[in-house]
Design brief:
This protein has 167 residues and is α+β, with helices and mostly antiparallel strands. It has three helices and nine strands. The radius of gyration is 18 Å and the shape is globular.
Length: 167
């Protein structure tokens, strides 16, 4: 087995091919709330949270006016956007509802709670919050790793937590 990767490595950003920059920004900026850090006309936009140079690049370099890949093809399954708190994830849910954007699912994985949806270009998007590492479910004695599972998320409780944070 090869040497493990340095534990300090993380995913810095993702670039998504989109058909229309303005439409994509209508979702990522106007609904989710990302900031635009740079824009290259109708070719590309770079967006971030918290002042980072960019977490997501949106570009039309190979996709202007294009359509999503058909089902049964390879490619990106989804991009996962991690929120710092349940209240922040609840606020994202509120923003989605106000914009009329439907969820495809909402799952408690034990290690995290996640909301699943599609962006305007049919890219999969996961919005999630991690639980503290010490609360992650573990396999039975003698096992290693985590014991993730799929259970429903209480969306009303998530919204209530966001509302409580505002008060």
């Amino acid at each position: 087995m090869a040497e493990p990767i340095d534990p300090g490595v993380d995913i810095g950003h993702v670039h998504l091919k989109v058909a229309d920059i303005d439409r994509a920004l209508g979702f990522y900026r106007d609904v989710l709330g990302f900031d635009v850090t740079q824009r290259l006309g109708d070719q590309a936009a770079f967006i971030s949270a918290g002042g980072y140079h960019h977490h997501i690049g949106l570009n039309t370099w190979e996709s202007r006016g294009g359509s999503p890949p058909p089902p049964g093809t390879t490619g990106l399954y989804h991009v996962a956007i991690r929120y710092p708190t349940r209240a922040a994830l609840g606020d994202a849910l509120r923003r989605l509802r106000e914009a009329g954007i439907p969820l495809e699912g909402a799952t408690d994985h034990g290690v995290s709670e996640a909301l699943y949806l599609r962006d305007p270009d049919d890219n999969g998007v996961e919005l999630y919050v991690d639980r503290p590492k010490e609360d992650w479910p573990r396999p039975p004695e003698g096992g290693s790793g985590v014991a993730m599972h799929n259970a429903p998320v209480d969306l009303q409780a998530l919204l209530a937590e966001a509302d409580a944070k505002k008060d």
